[in-house]
């Protein structure tokens, strides 16, 4: 039924925007569910009453009940009225409750704390043309975005992505040198070190907060003797003769991606490989309406583009510049060989060689 004074089309669009507003607020309830272990408790111990959920997770019963109602309203959980209990459906658990599942997505919502907190900075940036640097965000951005990408890396990097590159796994198995540039909190760096004990792996990132977290994770994993984390820019990290240089979803965030690519070219062994992982979207995907495209476009407007602009370089790509833009950057930096090695619905993996 249309609102008086509106057309049916306007009324429908109004309801869609209300739905988007609900999703924006619901994201906070998902972050709470992830941080407080509410989804995991439901997955491991359900069906649960609000009182039992509260007991298991250390929250109060009244908040447990209200949180469950929010989840029920969008069918994230199911209610069993006769027993007064709630269940997380088994098909939902790999998305909301299991950090090791390739489909796990709840961790992303913990980054909302950092993204929403930059609203005033973004208003100023949009008016002045300045940027919002990564360091201006709360550390929750490092952990939240790391948590979002980690399941894909855990399930794809070693069995699929590295074997898709020519000769790389053989080099690393016998002992090589790897530079993981833009490593963030080090998830990919540690995966490489664990899989290839004869290889020395270096993780570089310009975020001191991320490097501090990465070093702690390396200590926790017992890998500090084979992994070195340093604060360094993509166009100035130390070392040379690397057999493999990796960039995971970060080149588009750089203010001077050509300078970064030139430094990769200089730091590689003549027979080395640059593994470039980027979002599998392009300018043609802006209006496709797929969930991945919608997420990337929104993230680019509030995070990726402002981060690149803040570096005051000659480029500000955004996260959906596409393969042609990245290939042109590699060519300008001196690389002569380019190949799309493999892909997922979210990521494209490129093999770039001198």
Summarize the structure.
The protein is of the alpha/beta class and 354 residues long. Helices cover 48% and strands 16% of the residues. The strands form two sheets. It has a seven-stranded mixed beta sheet with strand order 5-4-3-6-7-9-8, sandwiched between helices. It has a two-stranded antiparallel ribbon with strand order 1-2.
Description:
The chain has helices at residues 8-35, 38-45, 50-57, 61-73, 93-96, 112-117, 119-128, 140-161, 168-174, 187-195, 208-221, 257-267, 291-310, 323-332; strands at 78-80, 85-87, 177-181, 200-205, 227-231, 242-248, 268-279, 337-343, 347-353. The chain has 354 residues and is α/β, with parallel strands linked by helices. Helix 8 (140-161) packs parallel to helix 10. The chain is 48% helix and 16% strand. Strand 3 (177-181), helix 10 and strand 4 form a beta-alpha-beta unit. The longest helix has 28 residues, at 8-35. The protein has a seven-stranded mixed beta sheet with strand order 5-4-3-6-7-9-8, sandwiched between helices.
Taking the sheet with the most strands, its summary is:
7 strands, mixed
Question: Distance between termini?
Answer: 62 Å
Tally of individual helices: 14
Task: Walk across the major sheet and give the strand order.
Answer: 5-4-3-6-7-9-8
Helix and strand content put the structural class at alpha/beta
Helix content: 40-55%
The number of distinct β-strands equals 9
- Backbone shape: globular
Question: Uncertain regions: pLDDT < 50 for 5+ in a row?
Answer: none
How much strand?
15-25%
- Determine the oligomeric state from the structure: single chain
Q: Which whole number gives the mean pLDDT? A: 93
**Spatial extent as radius of gyration:** 22 Å
Question: What is the N-to-C succession of helices and strands?
Answer: HHHHEEHHHHHEHEHEEHEHHEE
């Amino acid at each position: 039924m249309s609102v008086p004074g509106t057309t049916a089309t306007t009324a429908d669009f109004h309801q869609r925007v209300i739905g988007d507003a609900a999703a924006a607020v619901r994201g906070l309830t998902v972050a709470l569910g992830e941080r407080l272990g509410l989804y995991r408790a439901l997955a491991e111990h359900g069906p649960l009453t609000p009182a039992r959920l509260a007991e298991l997770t250390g929250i109060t019963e009244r908040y447990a009940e209200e949180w469950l109602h929010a989840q029920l309203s969008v069918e994230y959980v199911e209610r069993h009225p006769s027993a007064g209990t709630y269940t997380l459906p088994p098909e939902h658990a790999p998305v909301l409750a299991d950090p090791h599942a390739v489909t796990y997505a709840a961790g992303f919502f913990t980054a909302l704390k950092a993204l929403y907190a930059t609203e005033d900075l973004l208003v100023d940036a949009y008016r002045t043309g300045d940027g919002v640097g990564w360091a201006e965000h709360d550390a929750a951005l490092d952990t939240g975005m790391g948590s979002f990408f980690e399941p894909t890396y855990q399930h794809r990097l070693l069995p699929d992505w590295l074997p898709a590159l020519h000769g790389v796994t053989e080099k690393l198995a016998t002992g090589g040198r790897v530079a993981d540039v833009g490593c963030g909190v080090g998830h990919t760096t540690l995966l490489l070190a664990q899989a290839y004990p004869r290889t020395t792996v270096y993780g570089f990132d310009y975020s001191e907060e991320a490097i501090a977290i990465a070093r702690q994770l390396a200590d926790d994993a017992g890998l500090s003797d084979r992994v070195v984390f340093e604060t360094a820019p993509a166009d100035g990290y130390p070392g040379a003769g690397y057999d493999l240089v990796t960039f995971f979803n970060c080149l588009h965030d750089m203010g001077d991606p050509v300078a970064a690519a030139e430094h990769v070219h200089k730091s590689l062994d003549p027979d080395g490989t640059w593994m470039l992982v980027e979002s599998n979207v392009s300018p043609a995907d802006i209006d496709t309406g797929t969930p991945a495209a919608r997420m990337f476009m929104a993230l680019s407007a509030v995070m990726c583009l402002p981060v690149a602009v803040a570096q005051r370089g000659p480029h500000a790509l955004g996260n959906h510049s596409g393969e042609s833009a990245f290939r042109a950057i590699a060519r300008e930096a001196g690389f002569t060989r380019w190949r799309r090695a493999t892909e997922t619905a979210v990521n494209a993996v490129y093999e770039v060689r001198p």
